[in-house]
Amino acid sequence: MSQAQGAYYVPHDSRWPVFGIPGMVLLAAGFSLYLNGGSWGMPLMVVGAIITLIMTVMWFRDVVNESVAGKYNTQVDASFRQGMAWFIFSEVMFFGAFFGALFYARVFSIPWLGGDDPATARYLWDSVALSWPTAGPGFLDLDYQAMGPLWLPTINTLILLTSGVTLTYAHHAMKENHRNKVIAGLAATVLLGFIFMCVQSYEYVHAYQDLNLRLDTGIYGSTFFMLTGFHGLHVTLGAVALLVMLIRVIKGHFTADDHFGFEAAAWYWHFVDVVWLGLFVFVYLI
Amino acid sequence: MSSTTHDAHHDHHDHAPPKGMTRWLFTTNHKDLGVLYMVFALIMFFVGGAMAMVIRAELFQPGLNLVDPHFFNQMTTMHALVMIFGAVMPAFTGLANWLIPVQIGAPDMALPRVNNWAFWLLPAGFVLLLLTLFMPGGGPAGGWTMYPPLVLQLGDAFPFLIFAVHVLGISSIMGSINIVATILNMRAPGMTLMKMPLFVWAWLITAFLIVAVMPVLAGAVTMLLTDQYFGTSFFSAAGGGDPVMFQHIFWFFGHPEVYILILPAFGIVSAIIPTFARKPLFGYSSMVYATASIAFLSFIVWGHHMFSVGMPLAGQLFFMYATMLVAVPTGVKIFNWMATMWQGSMTFETPMLFAIAFVILFTIGGLSGVMLALAPVDLQYHDTYFVVAHFHYVLVSGAIFSIMAGVYYWLPKWTGHMYDERLGKWHFWLSMVSVNVLFFPQHFLGLAGMPRRIPDYALQFAEFNMISSIGGFAFGLSQLIFLWVIIKCVRGGEKASDQVWEGAKGLEWTLPSPAPYHTFETPPVVK
């Protein structure tokens, strides 16, 4: 079993994680200084971001090279699957915190502030009727409009659902060794992801310019922008991952039965897709 | 690093570690990383301990004596953050790194690079966190729970605190993903799930809890950040949010977190007691199910931290009864440990002494926890020294005693030398006595109404505070013996045998002492 064929691959040393640590510190400290109004904050933050980016790229490059060189056996593959699955689970829980905030506000704090709780009504705001969407009892005279499901979010829902289909098409093509179909399906998925982000950006501009709906528009604006914003960030990451996979497909890195990099990106994309469905229902629809 | 590269062996690993600093910076070896985690935890244990000494010195006598009240508040806050995220969690993760692969017969952890990253994020997080003490406005002083709106009054340190929590969270999540992947994927042939040592089981469940709740904490502190700087209203009633919402989200993380701090301890104690009782663990499978039940319950009891902030009656009743349910699987564990010792051929080496002290003192902390679970009486206990006594019984004489037990138990395997048993016993008895002198009087102080997190107190609390402080100083000094025992054992001592302890069972005891740099490259067969 100590022959290379059966041995579990353990890299001898790993420089990129440690290389990235100062980047993380600079990114965090720079952003903090920036928020505190320090003039050094932004440059430090940019340096930190660049270092972190280099770490990410080089680390993945090492892994891709090792994978292409055939150093990974099926057990290593299974470790990657476990790692990716649990990472996505942690992301689900991260979104859970923000969905939790949305539900708490809608089910508890808004009705309480709106008079359901006599003590709140007595000590904070007397008899203000509140109903969702609201910017809260302190901003009753704020003039803004809520973002309904029509039409941009509905269009985006269709775009993301379609991208799930094209991605699955690419995956099936991968299993059947139809490389051109994989490339077509994957390229379509990345394109749809890009269109989604364009529509989302347009929606934000629309919200700020036409609806006067902003991040600081009370709890409605807070939950709306934080949930859709973090989702958009994840769509961007997922699209970048799929783009890298597209390049790797073109380079011929994958075979019909060994393509976990592709599958990991696909899992991530489906996760982002499902989160969007939750958003569409609870942020836009009801 | 290249100077250390040996001629490349394609077919097997080099069996000696590289030399110099780069070994520790770039290492992917689970034993190296385990050592790094544990050394880091030990340093943080003394940093956090020094903060505790400041607290006990200020409280030695009534009046504002030594430090500024604002600094006192920084000490209570930072003591908690350092001990939780810097000492106890990294110590457990270090033990996991060192032990899980050798207990399940794996060549290393499943994701060695991630392992390296997860460790080095810890010093990064603590640079951010500890630097806050030197910033305008001082470090975090509103309690480790970071409740708004109080935490929003923090000065320049505020974003550093938030990002430190983010970095430490990433570290814990990455470390835990690695542990789950290792346990599920790297077991030797024949090592079925229900044959795994309980330490491995405890960590599998703990790692699941970490992956589940650390992201929730990250979300909560992100909302604090945006409330402070970007105008969101999550925790502001004027905007339709609610400060109490933070407490719900925080404790949804926080309660599983306290079990994250204790479940690995159960695993360690379940390894040590059978060895020195020379009997197999009583009720192995019930231990597994009890650990899983405790983990499940941890998700539905968070409200018991918030009885006094106001909650609908149905919520109070639900959280009260759910919390009391936790006592059932915990009781199963306590009785299993007792049944393991029953009629065993017991000997009382230092690891066993700490393990037995754990069982007794953790039970005291557990029972005061059941008292606190009762919603009507919790209104009296809330934010008093009774709570402080409760969680220090479960965390100091619980979690930390178990870590010390584990260190004494496995130190001969790590170093190849027996530790100094005489000094170990001194360390144990001094710790055992002083920890009770330190924390037992705090029950009385709390029941008499002394609030926590206040640098001064009414005169009637003077005697018990002085007794508690004397216990605190004694406990702090006793830990220097621990440090000395470890250093002495690393440097030399009586040669340890492979099995080390007469009654020790398990794969790690089939390895030489010290265990070679790479182990189980050929998986052992577990019958």
Per-chain topology:
The complex is a heterodimer of chains A (286) and B (527).
Chain A: H1 16-35, H2 41-68, H3 74-116, H4 118-123, H5 152-175, H6 179-209, H7 218-251, H8 260-285
Chain B: H1 21-26, H2 30-58, H3 69-104, H4 112-131, H5 157-185, H6 198-229, H7 243-260, H8 263-277, H9 284-298, H10 313-341, H11 350-373, H12 375-381, H13 385-415, H14 421-447, H15 462-491
Please characterize this protein's 3D structure.
The complex is a heterodimer of chains A (286) and B (527). Chain A is mainly alpha-helical. Helices cover 74% and strands 0% of the residues of chain A. In chain A, helix 1 runs antiparallel to helix 2, helix 5 runs antiparallel to helix 6 (179-209) and helix 6 runs antiparallel to helix 7. In chain B, 66% of the residues lie in helices and 0% in strands. Chain B has 15 helices and no strands. Chain B is globular and about 65 Å long. In chain B, 57% of the residues are buried. At the A-B interface, helix 1, helix 3 and helix 7 of A face helix 1, helix 4, helix 5, helix 6 and helix 7 of B.
